[in-house]
Amino acid sequence: MIINSRNRRLRTTPALRALVQETVLTTNDFVMPIFVMEGSQKQEPISAMPGIFRRSIDLTVQECRELFSLGIKGVNLYMKVSEDLKDNTGKEAWNKNGLMQNTIKAIKDAVPEMVIMPDVALDPYSMYGHDGIINNGKIDNDATNEALVKMSVSLAEAGADIMAPSDMMDGRVAAIRQGLEENGFTDVGILSYAAKYASSFYGPFRTALDSAPKENQDIPKDKKTYQMDFHNSREALDEVLKDVAEGADIIMIKPGIPYLDIVSKVRDMIDLPIAVYNVSGEYAMLKAAAQNGWLDNDKAIIESLTCIKRAGADMIFTYAAKEAAILLNS
Ligand SMILES: NCc1[nH]cc(CCC(=O)O)c1CC(=O)O
Ligand SMILES: [Mg+2]
Which InterPro entries is this protein grouped with (predicted)? Predict the structure, then answer.
């Protein structure tokens, strides 16, 4: 029997394989999430996230310089706020002299070309560990939106380039857009976490910021009334289309690797840039296996990030950004 069509023909040599390669991963694809804390010359490791640290502003700025010189063009900022600054209004989030605002100014000063994308959500500032204001035992959508607008305007004043609302309230993209326009921030963009699922893969992140929902019978014990149910995919398309209509510039899907079917479907549907968040739990799993010698760390990182891009991501938020950039540059 004669086989006319042989797919192996184009896999014979590295040069041939390079010629037919469809997806190319570069440092332009990465956004590095960064954890910041008070103090100076401080750096604390985060358990369950080997290689990732919480740093004071001075060391954060130094890290941003290094990231930019490696080719990484965006950072996504998260603050570890002390318990005494947390309440049910989230007002520390729009303190002109808050940790986030000071971090943004310091990075802008030192690395002006870096695209600064602060997380917009109340959980690090909430005494309850929720992304919203709680009224009568429930997350109050519209009151939360008003807080997110104040937070966004304050972060834009500090010099942020792109707001990254990760809260999943309804209508917040339109509200933030309007707030930015009214205050003259017409060039400040919105990267909307449009399809963000209630996921167990956020565990290590919540330890990093001490931001998990508190044990308290008067408040919801998880985030399922605002983040999406992982059984659903059509609902994700609906969430995405609404955020596009409300004026989002970039659409985020989160988590990443277990949710690449969603990324692919959204890619077929919209032409706006898509961001995918390779979240803390995904990073932790890979690192745990690599530390046990069960996976080749470097190969697994490059493969998983390339697969996220292949599914349709234009940019990837990943804790492996720096490591991957070093690998790609070498
Ligand atoms: N607004 C909260 C927020 N922003 C980013 C993450 C998770 C990121 C990660 O796990 O890497 C979370 C956690 C959550 O929703 O509880
Ligand atoms: Mg929505």
Answer: ALAD, ALAD_AS, Aldolase_TIM
